[in-house]
Amino acid sequence: MNRPYDLIVYGATGYLGSLVVQYLWTHGPPALRWAVAGRNEQRLATLVDSLDPSQSHRKLPDVMVAALNGEDLGRMAFQTRLVLNTVGPFCKYGTPVVAACIEHSTGYVDSTGEHVWTQQLAAQWHEKAMANKAIVLFPTGLSGGTIASIFAGLETYSLRQMMAASAPGASCIPDAGPHRPHPAPNLPVRRDRFLGDLTFNPSAIADQAVVMRTWSLLQRYGDRTERYGDRFSFQGYTAAQGWLQAWTSFLTMSVAVFCILLFPPLRWLLKWLSPQPGTGPQLKPGERHFVKWKATVAADGVDVSEPSVLGIMRMNTDVYSVCATLVSEAALTLLQVLEGKDEGSMAKKLGGGILTPASLGIPYVQRLEKAGLQWKVTDIKGKEE
Questions:
Q1: Contact call for residues 140 and 111 (beta carbons, < 8 A)
Q2: Same domain flag for 105 and 208
């Protein structure tokens, strides 16, 4: 694939986009041929000028002006091997970018957490992406435009569409085989003796969509040893500091969603009060942040309330920087796949389609480890696997 650029960051001047550009400038390959793209040439040039000059051994990204129209997006996709898109809300602005990438057999990565959009996109474009050898990945994340994405979803989709897309199997590819998942817990709040008090996590719906699509891809295309099995199920939660806080959090969120859905004027007021897209928190010097995930796993045939394995992952930075790291490293790993340097991953095997980050395989995990991901898997008795 002989093209001028390896990677183009689209929407580079937004909050997450600028974090991605900073990350790639610091951690990307020195020989990376890349560009920053968006609608405002002056803001793009200012971003490039702000990059740390001490990294003089690296090539500065070029500046490319590209509006959200078919001609500009097609021109952009034709000139690069991969587009990293941070322009949201994706349900409003993401589809033309994905379509342009698929049309020109260009790889695509973004940071969306909009599960309704990804489910509909996968249903419509997966087969064409496979035929055109275009790999499309959606590492989920949060950014300054998260609130705007939530409101855009409420304005774009009906409640019925949102409920349908939230079903566990909605994101799965057809013909993945039988699926007999364990029943989901009846209550949104629960106590786990290994994970503590847990409450409803709205972003877990997006996580579930990615995990279940991974399950279906492996069931259909993976080796026998890679498959999760037809009893596989996934539930995600947010850790709470106690039973009372867990229920308070869930009830407060439920009332807020109910009011937003039933009273449009409240929705307009909240949009007006909310941070604007392209913005995000300004971290103070010396602040210490971390993001931590915990998971328990129960083997097939074992009572799900008696898990046998505990896994922990942690990154010692703020959630927005974590998101920038995840999408940037997914893009850099996918570039390796496109270069033919990875022969064992599902992404390489399929060559195209609406896939998930898991399709990048162990090389993606190894890159994240170098970027600061700490992880450990132990059995319940404390023996490290």
A1: yes
A2: no
